[in-house]
Amino acid sequence: MRIWLALFALLLVAGCARPPLDPAADRLARDFHGAVRSGDWARVEAVLAPDFAHTSDRRASFEQVRRALPAGQPREARVVGWSKGQGGVLSALHLYRFGDSDVVVQTTLRPEGARLKVAGFVANRLPPGQLEANRFTFAGKSARHYGFLVSAFLSPLVMVAVAAMAAMARGLRFKLAWMALALVGVGQAWFNWTTGEGGFTFAQLSLVNVGFGRATDISPWIIRFSAPAGALLVLARLLTLRDAVLSPAPKAEGRG
After folding, report:
1. Angle 143-168/175-182 helices, nearest 10 degrees?
2. Given CA atoms 43, 63, 68, 108 in this order, what sign does their dihedral have?
3. pLDDT one-digit tens code per residue, 65-124
4. Rounded to an integer, what distance in angstroms lies between the CA atom of residue 102 and that of residue 73?
5. For residue range 23-79, what is the model confidence (pLDDT) as tens digits?
6. What single string gives the DSSP state of each residue in 115-161?
7. pLDDT at 223 (0 to 100)
8. What's the alpha-carbon Rg for the chain, to the nearest Å?
């Protein structure tokens, strides 16, 4: 069973792969972090967006961030997430791993003419062991974890199976409509693989809705799926159709 669940998770992860961050934006964000960490204020101010550069307490803010960062060179530095907003504004999230701590840095990059400028910079230390806790693993997981993962696995299978049954059913009118209904899910159940927390929202309709992913490469994995309500309605219709076929026709009364 674990092999099938792992394969299911792998297929979902492959479908959720995000494109890489633009190399120029990646390089600018890394260089800016290095300039702040080393206290090279000339390099820092050279790439600041105009509104950010004119902030009165910018030097004090950067100095406060610099003192909070771990000393020495990081043993690992990589992009763990990014997003693009209105006006081409980029939000790049980098992970820097030091000997005794991990730091996540969010750098906001804004186009200014033909170049990108830094319009925001936030650094936060992660609690010890947070990265390891957010990995997808079966170690130490409860029956609740396995139950939710199996439910997410079965939900689309039930939808597709009932749609196939509708396609092959004899005497069923409007087959295409019934097949489409079988693929309709109602609501959305979600589950945090790290914390074991979960919930369900009702106000949603979707087709074969199942998802497995996380906001960034270091965030908790979230599993989502919709309840196969449409498949249950179609299955009920198929059962009534079968009962009608199996029921004997009433005998005609003879005349005396």
Report:
1. 180
2. negative
3. 888 888 888 999 999 999 999 989 999 999 999 888 899 999 999 999 889 999 999 999
4. 12
5. 999 999 999 999 999 999 899 999 999 888 777 777 888 888 888 888 888 999 999
6. EEEEEEEEEEEPPTTHHHHTS---TT--HHHHHHHHHHHHHHHHHHH
7. 95
8. 28
- What's the pLDDT score for residue 114? 87
Cα 237 from Cα 225, distance rounded (Å): 24
Task: Tell me which H or E stretch contains 177.
Answer: helix 175-182
pLDDT tens digits for 150-172? 999 999 999 999 999 999 988 88
Distance CA(104)–CA(95), nearest Å, equals 5
- 164 HSE (CA, 13 A, CB side): 6
- Enter the pTM of the model: 0.72
Q: How far apart are CA 52 and CA 57, in angstroms?
A: 10
Label residue 39 left, alpha or beta by phi (over 0 means left) and psi (-120 to 50 means alpha): left
Which pLDDT value is given to residue 19? 82
Are 235 and 162 a contacting pair, CB within 8 Å?
yes
d(CA 19, CA 115): 21
CA distance 155 to 183: 10
Tell me the backbone φ, ψ of residue 248, rounded to 5 degrees: -70, 140
CA distances from residue 156 to 16, 39, 87, 151, 193 in whole angstroms, order as listed: 17, 54, 38, 9, 20
Mean pLDDT for the chain overall: 86
Q: Report CA dihedral (190, 194, 197, 201) to the nearest 10 degrees.
A: -20
Residue 103: which of 135, 134, 133, 71 has the closest Cα? 71
Cα–Cα distance for residue pair 236/141, rounded to 1 Å = 36
